[in-house]
Amino acid sequence: MYSKLFVVLVVYLSVAESNDIINGYTNARSKKIYSELKEAGPALWKRDEEVVVNTTYNDVISAIYVTDLREDHNGEAYIESGGVGLRSVVIRLKSPSILRGYKFQVDVYATPMGEGLFHKGGGYYGDTQYPRNVNRTNKMKTLCVAILLSLAVFASCQSHDLAIGQATYGDVIIYKADEVKYGFPLITRTTIIQYPEPGQNNYAIIKAIYIKDNNKDGSGGFPTIGAGGVGQRFVKIKLKSQRGNGLNFTITIYGRYV
Ligand SMILES: *[C@@H]1O[C@H](CO)[C@@H](O)[C@H](O)[C@H]1NC(C)=O
Ligand SMILES: *[C@@H]1O[C@H](CO)[C@@H](O)[C@H](O)[C@H]1NC(C)=O
Ligand SMILES: *[C@@H]1O[C@H](CO)[C@@H](O)[C@H](O)[C@H]1NC(C)=O
C-alpha cells in the first residue's frame, strides 16, 4: 500500500509566472526517453524551434517537463500536438522577442502501454486510451493523421490553436467556454482555466482538448497546458496574451465516462 505511494511521484505543480510545462507523472516504470538542453542565442528574428519526441515500440508518454532556465523565465514553450498518454509529442520553443534567445531543459518520460499510468487516488488509464486489441497499423495511421492535421492547422493560419488528443464516438463535451480579455498597451494578459473548478469533481476521463484562437491575424495569445490533460480527470490551461494585445479563445474539452 505504502510502497505504491512511494513509487508514485505525483506532480501537481504549476509554476507561477514562467511558461514551464509540467505535465503528467513519473513512476518506477517510467524511463526518460528524451533529455536535452535546448538553447538559442539572440538574433534579429524571434528564435523558434520544434522538438518532436516519439516513443518506441510499446510505450506511451507519461510525463513532459520543459523548464525555462533563463533568469527572466519569459521564453515560450507549449505543446503543439500529442502529449501524455500518446506516443508522440511536438513541443514548440520560442524566444520572447527579437534580440532574445532562450534556454530550455526538455525531459520526456515514457511508460509501457497497457501497464497504466497510476496517479493519486489509484485511478489509472492506458487501456482506456489504447485498447490492446486495436489494429496497430490503423492506430498508427490515425495518430499520424492527427499529428499531420494539427501541424497543418498550425501552419495554414496564424491562429495559435492547440489541439491535444482526439475526440471519438462516445466522447462528450464536458466543458465549453469562450475566454476573452481585452488588450492594454504594454500589458500581458494571463488567464488560468481549471477544469473542474477547485472543489468540484469531474468523473470523466479527458479525451481531447481543443483550444481555438479566435484571433486569426496572429495577434492572439498562446495556450499551454500547465497540468493534467488527456487521459486524466483534470486540466489546467494557461492562456497568455502577447504584450499589448488581448486574447480570445474558445475552449472545448471532450471526455468519456468510464
Ligand atoms: C490491420 O489493418 C490493416 C490495414 O487496414 C490490414 O491490412 C491488416 O490485415 C489488419 N491486421 C489485423 C491483425 O487485423
Ligand atoms: C515521429 O513520428 C512521426 C509520426 O508518428 C514521424 O512523422 C516522425 O518522423 C517521427 N520523428 C522522429 C524524430 O522519429
Ligand atoms: C471573439 O471571437 C468571437 C468568435 O470569432 C467573436 O464573435 C467575438 O466578437 C470576439 N470577441 C472580441 C472581443 O474580439
Automatic annotation (TrEMBL):
<protein>
    <submittedName>
        <fullName>Uncharacterized protein LOC113495886</fullName>
    </submittedName>
</protein>
<dbReference type="InterPro" id="IPR031734">
    <property type="entry name" value="MBF2"/>
</dbReference>
<keyword id="KW-0732">Signal</keyword>
<feature type="signal peptide">
    <location>
        <begin position="1"/>
        <end position="18"/>
    </location>
</feature>
<dbReference type="Pfam" id="PF15868">
    <property type="entry name" value="MBF2"/>
</dbReference>
